[in-house]
Amino acid sequence: MKPVEILAMIEEAAGTRMFEDRRDKAFKTMAKKEMKVQEITELLKDEIEPKLEKLRTEKRAFLDFQQTQNDLERLTRVVVAHDYVKNQEKLRQSANDLDLKKQRAKDLEQSAIRLKNEISHLEDDIKRVKAQREKELRKGGKAQALEEQVKKHSHELIRLTTVMELKRSSMAEEVERKTTSQKTVSELELLLKEKTKVFEKLQTQFDKAKQDLEKQSADAETKEELLQTLQTGVASREGQESGYQGQLQDARNRASTAATEQEQAKLKITHLEKRIKEEEPRANKAKEQNAGLLGDLDGLRARAKKLEADLQRLGFEAGKEDDMYKEESTLQQAIRKLREQADSMKRKVANIDFNYADPTPGFDRSKVKGLVAQLFTLDKDHTNAGTALEICAGGRLYNVVVDTEVTGTELLQNGKLKKRVTIIPLNKIAAFKASAEKIGAAQKIAPGKVDLALSLVGYDDEVSTAMEYVFGNTLICADAETAKRVTFDPAVRMKSITLEGDSYDPSGTLSGGSSPNSSGVLVTLQKYNEIAKELNGKEEALAELQSNMSREKKKLDQARKIKQELDLKSHEIKLTEEQISGNSSSSIIQEVENMKHNIVQLKSDLAEAKKRQEEAAKDVKCIEKEIKDFNNNKDGKLVELQASLDALRKALSQKSASVKVLQKELQGARLDSEQVGGDLSAAQEHLQESEQTLKAYEEEIAKLLSEQSQIKVRMLPSAIELEN
What we know:
Layout: H1 3-14, H2 16-139, H3 142-232, H4 243-289, H5 291-314, H6 320-348, E1 368-371, E2 376-378, H7 386-393, E3 400-402, H8 405-414, E4 423-425, H9 436-445, E5 450-452, E6 457-459, H10 464-471, E7 474-477, H11 480-487, E8 495-498, E9 503-504, E10 510-511, H12 521-582, H13 584-632, H14 634-723
Helix pairs in contact: 2-3, 3-14, 4-13, 5-12, 6-12, 13-14
């Protein structure tokens, strides 16, 4: 047998051949499985993981959407509730106003009945007096003179009576308004108290929650540092003892410090009580001597506090009046300067002076838009085209634009125009604008050198028809060569004007040469329009400021008077305090009061230090116990600390979310409180105005009554003589 065959037989007998065959088969199977694993891994990486990531993203987006939708529903309910409450208040106010109006109508009906009765009585008196006058006329002229005098006094009395009735009627209405204002003020004060109470409650809750959050954050940080120190054996902060030993030393230091503070506070209290016992008899005697001055000082302080409250209620701001006067002076100076500039510009362009009288009573002047020259603007980038645009517009630059032909007819017939004008009614004018094809063809011939005149000016949409009528069919070209090519091109055939003012017409006519007499008027006119616009803005601002000053004048006068009285009281308080402090016995009173105050503060500090000492002692015991547990079971304690830290972090996250919710509620409550406070201030101002108006009515009625009594006294002798 050959050696190879012998080897094969030996391997077959030993079983190694079967092992090698199986091994080779296992390698092939493993290779196939490896390929399948790679395919599955690529499938996971290329298809499944992107889909999973996409699904996670969609899930997050859906959760955000769901949260937003919940917030939207909640806010919608809040808005609906707010609108419901406001509408209820409006309904209640409208019902009150309706009742007042019904009562007013009833009073007027009763007054009408009473006046009718008086008129009937007066007619009877007139008949009687006429009969008596005819009788006296037969006797002589003296009775006629007396009758004229009595008649004159009677008319004056009737006038005064009528004026008084009107004043009383207005006064009754003002009383009703005052009652309504008082009721509103009372309701708003109650509402403000409720809102303030809610705000203070939320503020307390927020402060407490914030303190708890800060405490939990500090605890979490301490536990995290402790866990890191115990795990690594290195302190997390440089220069700090590691782990439990550092905490234990800190707790012992706190306990020692608190004990020292207690001892110091006790010594100070004992010393101060001894001094009070010695000085109090002298202080009591000094109080008896200074009782009058102290009482006066308390009264002055109370009065000053009341005046400060009055100033705050009026909304007094120091320097506000001076600022308003300064602003008024600044605006007046600016207006004066702008008017001078406008007048100077106006003289250069005299043709824009267009004035007219109202053709009919109550005429709406917005129907007359103005001159064409005042209805468009020329951008600063296109000022070089001013001359060309003037040539393009020609006489149309001074045409008057109106809304309809009816307005134009009214202006011509009844507007009292001082010169001849051409009117452009927007609803009738036949405007023509060059087609986009022609403009495109022209710009293709000379790119960047041709523009439609209409595209170089700015204007409002309501006058677009008039602008198209004036500028819509003319091209503005950069030079004569461009204008010549564009004008006579078969695809364009439009009138063109160069920047120098030369005109090219497709019919063949050319015009140009020297600059026109009106050259530059358009640029000047644009400057005038800008100045006029700025002037109108300044005048409106001045009118609004003066209106505010007139409204605020009464309040400012009253506030100034209260401020003067407050300054006087402050000076009196200062003098009284100096008088008391200059007295040798007053220093003893102040010293005793200070010592008593210090004792109260020291007792509070003592209780606080005792509390801190007890807490520190508890911390020492707790830390010693934890050290013992850690030494006995290190791994278990680390796991426990990690679990405690995780729970604390979770609680901290929940607490932070609740603090944010409280903060939002607090902001909402603050806004509600501020809004109610503003409404209350406005209602108080209305109430104060009603009180001042009522006072003025009372003074006027008293004056009228005095005048009426004087007239009656003057009329009585004449009436007696006439009857005799």
